[in-house]
């Protein structure tokens, strides 16, 4: 019994020893597991290993005490791990959200997107990197949002200046840029920013084109205002345009300042003024052409037929020529006519004197045929004085004519062209005049000789019959041809129109230069183009002419 009890006690003891060994092994395993867990957690959290610090306590403590000592530490580390995981999850969520918004904007974004959240790397260093990436993305997002806002504001300003629909313009870029719903964020992607930049570039280009177009059209408008002497009231209607053009292209911010309506308004006004200008330019062309013709008529120059009134009017109406160019052409012709008139002045003055002398010669012939010229009527002494002066002028006519011919030839040599007087060469007129005058003098001489012969025959007949004949009167004195009676019955000679083609011009008044010259040179042209006929000259030139004598009150121009 004792041996059996001993054996049973040994078995119980052996069993207890085994249980104790198993319990110790379990405790060792639990402690090791806890220590491993603590090591893993500390490694994941990036903390220092505290097992080395606990070695002295572990040597003096039992396994249960060691397990009781490390269990709270493991629990505490698990709590820290959970908190760290939550932090990483929040940061990762924000990073993913911002990354999706900016859609791979830069290398930083790509680096952040490639990071994966792993349990074994929950250190503060890794958390700091995540936080740094998050702050960088948040800063980038803020910059992009500000850039989008600036771009949208600039688009809004440009659309206002150009008079375009802002909503339509922005919606064409991206609908989220104008109105953002609750479930939709503002598009800050790179493509959206590029589309905004392109839209701004297009709007700026359009602004530049419209500003230049408005500037060009307004330049024409200002020229027309100055040309047409537009009143301030009419200019005030488009004063807005003036204020716009005072600014540079980039400084124009007034809504609708460069809209198509404004440009159309200015273009319409320019078109209206152009039509009015065409009418006035036509009137001005006609006025300047009339001035040219007046200058040419005064100086007996033929105006350029290419710009005659009819041709100018037809060319302006047909649009074949610019009225400004036509006006400039006429202005050039006016200047040319003035220069030629200045170069012809000396010769024209001598022509004036010559024509006036011819007029006086004509008057003197009429005066010499008046048998009552020595009567004591009113004004007789005036006619006598005029007759004396006329005789002096008549004696100088041949010299003046020769001088005119010489000066005209010298002028033609200098200018290398003919000196034309109302379309006829002046030298030819003067040569014809000399021929006609010479033939007229011969006719007068024959008439005087014939009268002397008649007087001699009458004297001989009177001697035979013992009677003295009364002075023979010409049939041309039966009436006072070309004279008017004074109050006392005397007759004062006045200019008359000769029916004889002679060298003196047809005149109305002594000083009517234009009519005197025109009448004379018409007669001279007729004489220069037809054979001379002097048969009829003897009909009225059968009376004697007084000898040329007297004082010299007036002299021709110096030779």
Structural class: mainly alpha
Arithmetic mean of pLDDT: 74
Low-confidence stretches: 104-115, 471-518, 525-559
Helix and strand sequence = HHHHHHHHHHHHHEEHEEH
Which assembly state applies to the chains in this document?
single chain
Described by the principal axes of the CA atoms, the overall outline is: rod-shaped
Distance between the termini: 194 Å
Number of helices: 15
DSSP strand content: under 5%
Main sheet attributes: strand count, strand direction, barrel closure: 2 strands, antiparallel
Radius of gyration from the CA trace?
63 Å
Query: What percentage of residues falls in helices of 4 or more residues?
Result: 55-70%
Number of domains: 3
Find the count of extended strands (DSSP E, 2+ residues). Answer: 4
Could you give the order of strands across the largest sheet?
1-2
Written account of the structure:
The protein is an all-alpha fold and 559 residues long. The protein folds into 3 domains: 1-86; 124-258; 282-371 and 379-459, no CATH class. Helix content is 69%, strand content 2%. The chain has helices at 2-45, 51-60, 63-102, 107-114, 124-162, 166-173, 190-228, 232-236, 239-245, 260-298, 309-318, 323-368, 380-415, 426-465, 513-529, and strands at 420-421, 424-425, 483-485, 491-493. It has a two-stranded antiparallel ribbon. A two-stranded antiparallel ribbon has the order 3-4. The chain is rod-shaped and about 245 Å long. The chain starts with a helix and ends in a 30-residue tail after the last helix. Belongs to the MAP65/ASE1 family.
């Amino acid at each position: 019994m004792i041996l059996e009890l001993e054996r049973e006690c040994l078995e119980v003891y052996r069993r207890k020893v085994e249980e104790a060994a198993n319990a110790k092994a379990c405790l060792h395993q639990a402690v090791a597991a806890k220590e491993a867990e603590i090591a893993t957690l500390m490694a994941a959290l990036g903390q220092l290993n505290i097992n080395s610090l606990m070695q002295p306590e572990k040597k003096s403590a039992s396994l249960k005490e060691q397990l009781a000592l490390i269990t709270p530490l493991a629990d505490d580390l698990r709590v820290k791990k959970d908190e760290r995981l939550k932090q990483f999850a929040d940061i990762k969520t924000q990073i993913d959200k911002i990354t999706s918004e900016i859609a791979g904007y830069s290398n930083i974004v790509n680096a952040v997107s490639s990071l994966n959240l792993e349990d074994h790397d929950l250190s503060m260093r890794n958390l700091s990197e995540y936080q740094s990436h998050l702050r960088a993305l948040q800063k980038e997002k803020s910059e992009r949002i500000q850039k989008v806002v600036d771009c949208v504001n600039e688009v809004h300003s440009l659309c206002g200046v150009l008079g375009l629909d802002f909503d339509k313009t922005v919606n064409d870029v991206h609908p989220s840029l104008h109105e953002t719903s609750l479930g939709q964020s503002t598009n800050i992607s790179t493509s959206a920013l590029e589309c905004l930049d392109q839209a701004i570039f297009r709007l700026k280009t359009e602004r530049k084109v419209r500003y230049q177009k408005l500037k060009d059209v307004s330049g024409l408008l200002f020229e027309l205002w100055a040309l047409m002497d537009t009143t301030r009231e009419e200019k005030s209607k488009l004063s807005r345009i003036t204020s716009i053009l005072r600014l540079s292209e980039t400084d124009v911010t007034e809504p609708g300042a460069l809209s198509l309506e404004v440009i159309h308004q200015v273009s319409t006004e320019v078109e209206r003024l152009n039509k009015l200008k065409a009418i006035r330019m036509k009137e001005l062309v006609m006025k300047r052409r009339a001035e040219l013709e007046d200058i040419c008529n005064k100086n007996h120059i033929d105006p350029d037929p290419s710009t005659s009134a009819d041709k100018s009017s037809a060319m302006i109406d047909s649009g074949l020529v610019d009225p400004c160019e036509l006006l400039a052409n006429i202005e050039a012709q006016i200047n040319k006519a003035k220069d030629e008139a200045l170069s012809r002045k000396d010769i024209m003055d001598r022509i004036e004197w010559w024509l006036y002398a011819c007029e006086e010669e004509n008057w003197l012939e009429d005066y010499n045929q008046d048998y009552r010229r020595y009567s004591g009527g009113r004004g007789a002494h005036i006619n006598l004085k005029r007759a004396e002066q006329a005789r002096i002028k008549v004696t100088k006519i041949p010299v003046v004519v020769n001088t005119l011919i010489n000066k005209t030839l010298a002028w033609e040599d200098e200018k290398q062209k003919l000196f034309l007087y109302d379309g006829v060469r002046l030298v030819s007129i003067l040569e014809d005049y000399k021929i006609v005058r010479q033939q007229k003098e011969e006719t007068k001489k024959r008439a005087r000789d014939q009268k002397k012969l008649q007087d001699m025959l009458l004297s001989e007949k009177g001697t035979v019959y013992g009677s003295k004949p009364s002075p023979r009167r010409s049939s041309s004195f039966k009436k006072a041809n070309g004279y008017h009676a004074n109050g006392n019955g005397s007759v004062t000679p006045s200019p008359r129109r000769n029916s004889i083609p002679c060298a003196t011009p047809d005149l109305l008044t002594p000083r009517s230069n234009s009519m005197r010259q025109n009448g004379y040179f018409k007669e001279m042209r007729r004489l220069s183009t037809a054979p001379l006929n002097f048969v009829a000259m003897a009909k009225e030139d059968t009376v004697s002419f007084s000898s040329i004598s007297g004082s010299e009150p007036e002299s021709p121009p110096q030779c």
